[in-house]
Amino acid sequence: MALTVLLDLHLKPDAVLGAPAMLRDILAGTRAFDGCLGVDVLLDCEDPAHMIVLERWASADAEAAYREWRSGAGATDLGSLQASAPQVSMFETANDI
Question: N or C terminus: fewer CB in 10 A for the chain?
Fold first, then answer.
């Protein structure tokens, strides 16, 4: 079953300008990962330090494999940009509603 993940990020004020370049590099790896159906970045219209990364995955297993990769060989320095820990929400697609 398809899975949508929302990664709610709050950046440090001094990281706002440099974040797009780092995210572009990080998300290239996300988009290329097996099972990734797409990634969009949503920017808060009123708070430039707030963004949501919307990831779509073919399955929960594909997303879990991705998270495992990111915690090891695919680790990034995204944490250095964040003012607080990200909030992660996962949603299954309801095909019967």
Answer: C
What pLDDT digit, counting tens, does each position of 7-37 carry?
999 999 999 999 999 999 999 999 999 999 9
Q: What residue numbers bound the domain in which 33 lies?
A: 3-91
Q: Which helix (H) or strand (E) holds 27?
A: helix 19-32
- 97, part of any domain: no
The reply to whether 8 falls in a domain is yes
Q: Strands (DSSP E) along 1-92, which ranges?
A: 3-10, 36-43, 50-57, 87-92
In the beta sheet, which residues pair with residue 50? 10
Cα 23 from Cα 14, distance rounded (Å): 15
